[in-house]
Amino acid sequence: MALEKIFVPRRFLWFILAHHLIVVTACHDADYAQLIEDYCLSQFKFEMEEIGQKLWCDWDETVGSYGELTNCTILIAKKLDCYWPNQLVDEFFIAIHKHYFKNCSLSGRSLRDPPNNILCPFLVVPILITLLMTALVVWRSKRSEGIV
pLDDT for 27-43, tens place per residue? Predict the structure, then answer.
């Protein structure tokens, strides 16, 4: 019983020290959010305006700016001793995607119909096969030869 009373205060002391250590070395989310807004996002906005809204979905045009944005958030996280990625970074990039890439397809190319010389065979061939098979079934059912 006396031995347990000695260890309880030590555990409590370690808990208090660990809490203060974590508070001292923790990332300051408010500072981190402000810095990535001021430095990273402002540069990204400038580059995206230079590219033009019509080319935002062209990955070849935006990959450089997007990579620089990612690297900027990583460098600021390292300077502030923050983990990367974290929830703040996830929310930051989700906001970026909702604003700049919301109308883009997953492949990065705008969706459009294929040319007629490619589309027509894909439409005509199944229709002709269906008609041919229907005619063959009807023709075969009218012939009663060989059926007992």
Answer: 777 888 898 999 899 99
